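Researcher: Last one for today. Full complex below.
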Amino acid sequence: MTLFEALDFALAAIVLGLAARTISARRVFGAVVAYVAYGLLLAIIWVRLYAPDVALTEAAIGSGVTGVLLISASTRLGPLAAPDAPPGAALKAGAAALSALVAGILATAVLYLPDPAPSLAPEADAHLAETGLGNAVTAVLIAYRSFDTMLEKVVLVLAVAGVWSVAPDRFWGGAPAPLGPAAPDTALVFLARILAPIGAVIGVQMFWVGADEPGGAFQGGAILAAMWMIVMMARLTEPPRISSGWLRLALIAGPGVFLLAGLAGPVMAGSFFAFPPGFAKPVILFIEAFMVLSIAVSLPLLVAGPPNREAGR
Amino acid sequence: MNDVLLAAAGITLLTVGAGLARVLSGAREVDGLMAVQLLGTGGIAALLLAASATGVAGVENVALGLALLASFASVAFVNASRTQRGSDRGENR
Amino acid sequence: MSVVLDLFTVLAVGLGVFFFLAGTVALLRFPDSLSRLHGLTKADNLGLGLVVLGLIPRASSPLAALKLIVLWALVQLGSATVAQMIGSALRRREEIE
Amino acid sequence: MSPSTIAGLTAAILVGLGLYALIVNADPLKKLLAFNLLGSGVFLVFGIIARRGAVGAFPFDPIPQAMVITGIVVAFAASALAVALMLSLAKESGRITLDPEGETRPDNGAENA
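Model: Here's the assembly. Have a good evening.
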């Protein structure tokens, strides 16, 4: 066994240990701490698999923003967490057997994947020049599989609408609960004041270089979202009222602009979601800019939850 | 030289990872937060070492993203533990 | 010249790794939370700082080197704030109990 | 063993762990965590398929990777919706169990770890 094999095994063991800790921790708080650490290490495994784009997304959304969502949920639900009756031994044994079976089938499938593996990489590369992009992952997201990505933005809008819809009628149009305590740490206020502007610049830069290097609309948008959230956690700003026009416009800007560009395809380039040849890169970056806006707005709103104050306040 | 850097990356990651695993098996929640913080910094160091050794494009961008978010989850945790303790005792601080 | 620089890199990175090790040991061995916090912040500050210092000679361009330094500064800002917050949370807990 | 095989086996175990916890844990928030673990295991399988699709100068197949990126965002959106539903369930009923008889049962211990 080489040194690097040993390191890979050790990394896998720690990741699995953290996963086990996540599901076995008695209190949700401890479980979420383990989950955030798990997400961090998973991002490093993604780097090992030559997937820096995914690693960034996993670190920002899978670990960071999801962690904040779960931790704030556990705070609000914590006092209510009445312990349920523990599951019976039969249920545990059955679940263990089923899980072992599924894991076994999956492991077998992984070990007997066809060799040589099928790959679309040459096709993706062959048409990369037509998009004017250098990052094949961005090309897949915005050009080759653009319909998927557009609908995925629609899912985000629907999720925000779904979260808002659980609010009682009298709070409709009001603002969600604040993200931090009434008197935040002064150190946190300082951090938010310094970090947020720098982070905003880096987020925009990450979107911009995403055309050619790892990065892109999702990663840049997620970092901008995190910066807005840290400003709200320091109580420098409050979550906006959900009736505000700019907010709703920003939410639908991503899928809206994407859809319009797709509909303009038949006129400009001959088919739906086709971009005019020679002019594809500016169109792609234009669409992506609005996607960044929508992602940066929708992720914090999903974390903030339904409105809990009346619209007048 | 590159192998030395990669080995350093691996050792750093395993050290902080093992420390975290050890701490989380204990009962002290605050220590878990500290260990996650150390894991974040160690992970960034490991990524930078790996980026320098392998020259794979974009790894240092991942490190930059992690650096921005390093404090993010911990801030939420401390805020949450404050709110939790406050509500346990029916007070705000 | 490059041998000297390589030696410098190995030395600085090695020392950085040592500090991560020291921080982990502090986390596991120190008796109370405040001293664990103290040991930890020293370690991750110096650990990452030395690793960055060691990698600067290998940076492909001055801009890449600057990026490394900015990254280190960001981590410092974040971890110092978190340490402060954890410290005052511990303090409040002591006052209550 | 290659890094992608190790990651693939890790993914299989993650799916198993997530599925087990999803069935066994009664607390909806823990179910949500388990669901996220299961999901990241599935994403990791996509990741190794992308890595195995390395051809020539390309170190990975970009199509599965792009699908994982959209997948992570959708998983987060689903988690946020689930949290909102839990919070409103808690507000309506004052408890967060999915068990309709949970309240009438004797409170026999927190040992459901």
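Residues 29-54 of chain B form the longest helix (26 residues). Chain B has four helices and no strands.
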